[in-house]
Inverse folding.
């Protein structure tokens, strides 16, 4: 924390030096804001979308698709942390938060996977390669992939929840030797709704990754598991005392998954969730994404469980 | 497999581990080794509930036949898990079809016999009650989450 | 060295405000209001303050009524657009004014829960009222604001953000509660992880001319949240209007370097001790007139542990979710974004607009709203204002202006709601019998 006394003197000196006001001295308002001074460039950036081109649109399941985008200034790289999201703008329709689902070590293009749930995502689904979108981001906090080193990692994903977790898994697999056992538990509605099916099978074939998938129901003939994803937790091979849990999916599923992890002996400070709320600005200024005292857009979307435990499961919070 | 080896197996199974050794050996006496090939039924809906199973290897799908939609799998049970509780409650009839998804080895226990023994020895009855009630509660919790259909389109 | 007595600040700290010992330019910025207050009161800070150059005693001047009229003319000559209180549609609102004559001369307001009336005063006071339905946020954080223009061109999209240019506004007649509100908005819109450059620019350019309240309305409770009635910081110039002994004058002081510069060029004369004493007496009397109280002791924890209190159900039966409270509240900042295209489809615009957490789709995520019932929306608003604000911004979101009480069509009073919850702390629906009318609750 800077010494407030010298900080004031510095602020005054700066004001005297470079005030654009006709008056050489600062108003009460200017002084009020001076102490909140931000580094140049952090103010305007998050509010202006930048144009991005659609490279590819891939249908994953009935209602889920992946968009691959590249910044219009195609030499710039898109750096992000696993767990972050972008605000994607479709011309004239609107802007929505979409999880980044690609590999953080491949920043030339950026992948987003989403479900078609409203006007904007419906319009997105009809885009073609070459079309342009507006992009703001990346925003939010990421999965604790660095902090999880030297631990077992258990990833519990439900439905579309696998999308924001996939970058974490890529990151971990690229640095595999730094982690203990890595387990992916994935649940979907039916076998047709399993996301990234081909990739799941490739992951399952690896010797250094355990993958268990289950569906809520299936037609006879399905040879995989049937049952909610929480039932996979009690049998998954990891050491609860040295495990970091990453959980993402519908909120109800996350709550019950966390209960199972706790029952298994994982500490509440080792479990992380990705939350979702209505977002418009993604920078903590519009007030809509609040969950109790936290803003999901900037304090999250990834939260350590003990931080939001009090608010989860409360009705209509 | 001899009864003795079965007893050792039960001692290692989480479900029966803490059971009094005398009871365990009685239980072993009521159990037989069974094998089902992929696609074979362990039991059908409305069969008399004479048995319950401890799955040793493989996977069993619980199915409900829905006219016009074909059989729907509502749950799969795999190794280490216990299958079947209808033998505990009247009218002692199986409520679902159970079909082996892959080659499955299990131990089948004579439910009717154990029921009689429980009537005679309430302490044994209580031991079974404790274990099966936990199983039923867990299944119920999972089922309720399944019921919410959380992945459905809003 | 004079020191103000210990003040209970709304930031839950009791601090010694050694205000008058600081150099003038630091004295009155809302910097004093933030968490750095703790550092100011540390022993090392206090001793380094002792070594600063001898500061001037609070510089107060007297401004006659006629001179004040010249002040406003002078602000206009300096390029400021005057914004001040004026009578319109039966209320005192904040709008562009041309001169001192546009002020509500000789008017006062009578406010009660759900009721606002203007009444004539026996004198010709310029500021003899408190606050109306407008808050100053509408000039710094406008109700409608264009974020970007987007043009669709052959090969793509062009985004054009408007530059953060701001009009030079002179905000005349800012009350203590409003100053507190501005300091709080600074924290939200310019002091957080991301800052709004448009708000910041307007704030920097604005001239803040504050006025002390001498006659609180019955709905005011700024004293109990530490926001007033005396203005303490955040202003360029501050005035206390005195009508006594046949005279009509203001005791004025500067609160920033800009204020001091301007004051040199504005007509005034030195204050006599009697004039100063009269002003002080009026200010002290004002604080004593406030009858409404919000007990802020342990308020955050009280609300956090009473999320299922039956009182929420009772207030929800009255609340129309009309959003009036959020519109008149000087610290409510929630917005939405709307997309508009023109008929040709070649150009689109993104507009930011005020919104309210009371609207049905404020918390909409696919499938439905998280807060679907009126009960949950009222609870969200109140616990945000009085509890989660503290965790988010380190300060209480309420400044005690009473606007939400006055302008609620059904007269819901948040001080009464808090009192009811505190009275039956920990109550659940099972324990409470259903009252037949909300007013029967304690």
């Amino acid at each position: 924390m800077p010494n407030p006394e010298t900080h004031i003197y510095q602020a005054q000196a700066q004001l005297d030096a470079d005030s654009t006001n006709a008056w050489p001295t600062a108003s009460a308002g200017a002084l009020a804001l001076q102490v909140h001074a931000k580094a140049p460039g952090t103010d305007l950036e998050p509010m202006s979308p930048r144009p991005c081109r659609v490279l590819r649109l891939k249908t994953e399941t009935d209602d889920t698709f992946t968009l691959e985008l590249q910044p219009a200034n195609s030499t710039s790289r898109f750096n992000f942390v696993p767990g972050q999201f972008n605000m994607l703008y479709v011309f004239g329709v609107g802007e929505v938060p979409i999880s980044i689902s690609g590999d953080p070590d491949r920043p030339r293009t950026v992948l987003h996977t989403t479900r078609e749930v409203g006007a904007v995502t419906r319009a997105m689904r009809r885009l073609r390669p070459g079309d342009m979108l507006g992009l703001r981001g990346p925003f939010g906090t990421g999965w604790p992939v660095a902090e999880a080193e030297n631990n077992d990692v258990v990833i519990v994903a439900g439905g579309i929840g696998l999308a924001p977790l996939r970058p974490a898994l890529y990151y971990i697999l690229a640095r595999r030797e730094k982690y203990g056992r890595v387990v992916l538990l994935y649940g979907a509605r039916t076998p047709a709704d399993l996301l990234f099916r081909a990739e799941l099978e490739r992951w399952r074939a690896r010797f250094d990754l355990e993958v268990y998938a289950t569906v809520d129901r299936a037609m006879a003939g399905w040879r995989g598991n049937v049952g909610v994803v929480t039932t996979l937790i009690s049998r998954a091979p990891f050491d609860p005392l040295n495990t970091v849990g990453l959980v993402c999916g519908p909120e109800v599923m996350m709550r019950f998954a966390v209960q199972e992890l706790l029952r298994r002996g994982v500490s509440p400070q080792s479990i992380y969730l990705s939350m979702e709320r209505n977002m418009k600005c993604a920078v903590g200024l519009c007030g809509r994404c609040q969950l109790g005292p936290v803003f999901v857009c900037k304090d999250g979307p990834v939260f350590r469980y003990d931080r939001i435990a009090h608010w989860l499961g409360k009705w209509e919070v | 497999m001899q009864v003795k080896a079965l007893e050792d197996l039960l001692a290692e199974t989480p479900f029966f581990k803490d059971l009094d050794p005398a009871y365990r050996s009685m239980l072993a006496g009521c159990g037989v080794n069974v094998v089902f090939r992929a696609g074979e039924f362990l039991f059908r809906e409305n069969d008399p509930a004479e048995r319950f199973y401890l799955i040793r290897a493989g996977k069993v799908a619980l199915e409900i036949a829905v006219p016009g939609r074909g059989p729907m799998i509502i749950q799969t049970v795999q190794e280490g898990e216990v299958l079947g509780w209808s033998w505990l409650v009247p009218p002692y009839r199986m409520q679902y079809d159970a079909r082996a998804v892959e080659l499955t080895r299990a131990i089948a226990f004579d439910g009717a016999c154990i029921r009689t023994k429980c009537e005679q020895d309430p302490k044994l009855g209580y031991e079974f009650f404790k274990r099966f009630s936990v199983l039923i509660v867990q299944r119920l919790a999972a089922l309720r989450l399944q019921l919410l259909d959380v992945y459905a389109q809003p | 060295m004079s020191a103000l007595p210990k003040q209970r600040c709304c930031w839950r700290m009791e601090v010694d405000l050694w205000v008058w010992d600081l150099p003038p330019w630091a004295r009155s910025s809302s910097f004093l209001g933030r968490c750095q207050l703790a550092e100011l009161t540390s022993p090392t800070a206090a001793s380094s303050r002792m070594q600063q150059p001898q500061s001037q005693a609070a510089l107060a001047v007297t401004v006659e009524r006629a001179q004040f009229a010249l002040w406003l003319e002078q602000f206009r000559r300096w390029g400021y657009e005057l914004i001040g209180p004026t009578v319109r549609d039966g209320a005192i609102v904040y709008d562009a004014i041309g001169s001192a004559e546009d002020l509500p001369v000789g008017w006062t307001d009578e406010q009660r829960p759900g009721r606002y009336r203007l009444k004539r005063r026996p004198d010709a006071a310029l500021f003899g009222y408190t606050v109306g339905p407008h808050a100053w946020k509408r000039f710094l954080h406008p109700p409608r604001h264009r974020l970007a223009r987007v043009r669709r061109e052959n090969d793509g999209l062009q985004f054009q953000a408007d530059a953060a240019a701001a009009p030079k506004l002179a905000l005349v007649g800012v009350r203590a509660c409003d100053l507190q509100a501005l300091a709080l908005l600074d924290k939200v819109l310019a002091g957080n992880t991301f800052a709004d450059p448009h708000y910041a620019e307007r704030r920097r350019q604005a001239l803040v001319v504050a006025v002390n309240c001498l006659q609180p309305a019955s709905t005011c409770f700024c004293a109990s949240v530490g926001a007033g009635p005396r203005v303490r910081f955040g202003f360029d110039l501050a005035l206390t209007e005195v009508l006594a002994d046949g005279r009509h004058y203001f005791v004025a002081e500067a609160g920033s370097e800009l204020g001091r510069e301007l004051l040199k060029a504005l007509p005034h004369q030195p204050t006599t001790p009697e004039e100063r004493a009269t002003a002080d007496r009026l200010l002290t009397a004002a604080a004593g007139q406030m009858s409404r109280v919000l007990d802020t002791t342990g308020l955050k924890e009280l609300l956090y542990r009473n999320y299922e209190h039956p009182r929420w159900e009772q207030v929800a039966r009255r609340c129309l979710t009309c959003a009036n409270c959020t519109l008149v509240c000087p610290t409510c900042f929630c917005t939405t974004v709307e997309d508009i295209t023109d008929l040709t489809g070649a150009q689109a615009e993104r507009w930011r607009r005020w919104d309210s957490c009371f609207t049905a789709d404020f918390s909409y995520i696919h499938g439905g709203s998280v807060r679907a019932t009126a009960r949950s929306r009222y609870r969200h608003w109140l616990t945000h204002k009085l509890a989660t604000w503290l965790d988010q911004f380190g300060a209480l979101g309420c400044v005690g202006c009473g606007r939400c009480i006055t302008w609620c069509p059904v007269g819901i009073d948040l001080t009464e709601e808090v009192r009811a919850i505190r009275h039956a702390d920990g109550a659940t629906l099972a324990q409470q019998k259903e009252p037949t009318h909300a007013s029967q609750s304690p």
User: Anything to note?
Assistant: The domain at 4-139 of chain A is CATH 2.40.30.10 (Elongation Factor Tu (Ef-tu); domain 3). Chain A has two domains: 4-139, 152-274. Residues 4-18 of chain A form the longest helix (15 residues).
